[in-house]
Write a structure and sequence with these properties.
By secondary structure, this protein is of the alpha/beta class. It is built from 6 helices and 11 strands. Helix content is about 30%, strand content about 30%.
Length: about 190
């Protein structure tokens, strides 16, 4: 798991575990909202009374990383290239507008090399699976990677968002960034 590897690379002792309940959300120093199905993730978070808690913890400074569907859940605005406005339940803290399934469906998934100049990384293997696109960013959002003219990785204070799956890249650079944000918060 990339998070455990990142802890090891940074020489930090820490625990990595799955979070499913509001009680578990209260205990973490950082959180990754992974890829998956963003509509279901939002509905489950609302059903378990986690959505508002997540929103408040992130507003209060909890470092969080959203990858692919996790980015969608964090976004303030979401559209689908086929159905338009989604009206799905969102945490809504990352000042971006996202278009779901921007590159197409499962068979249009792909891998490509990108550069992360803000992180000092060239040749990062980015894996895009039914990937969204960031189509607009707010003034407090820093674009840290692009694919062509499209932002694919952003940072807004304690929030990291990627349209791809960094855990599949073989690199821990994004997980290390999240851990460093958690350490600096302590």
């Amino acid at each position: 798991m990339a998070s455990r590897m990142a802890l090891g690379r940074l020489g930090i002792d820490g625990d990595v575990f799955f979070v499913k309940t509001p009680e578990e959300i209260e205990k973490v120093d950082a959180l990754i909202i992974p890829g998956g199905e963003s509509t279901v993730m939002g509905r489950l978070a609302a059903f378990t009374k986690s959505l508002q808690l997540l929103r408040q913890r992130i507003i209060d400074g909890l470092p969080v990383m959203g990858t692919c569907a996790g980015l969608i859940v964090l976004a303030k605005r979401v559209y689908d290239r086929v159905v338009g406005e989604t009206r799905q339940q969102l945490v809504g803290v990352l000042d971006v507008t996202v278009e779901r399934n921007s590159y197409g469906r499962q068979r249009e998934s792909f891998e490509t090399m990108i550069d992360l100049p803000a992180l000092g990384v060239t040749g990062f293997r980015a894996v895009f699976i039914r990937a969204p696109t960031i189509i607009d960013t707010g003034p407090g959002v820093e674009v840290i990677a692009r694919l062509g003219d499209r932002p694919v990785a952003v940072v807004q204070e304690n929030i990291i968002g990627t349209t791809f799956h960094p855990e599949l890249s073989g690199s821990t650079v994004f997980h290390e960034l999240l851990i460093k944000k958690a350490i600096s918060r302590r």
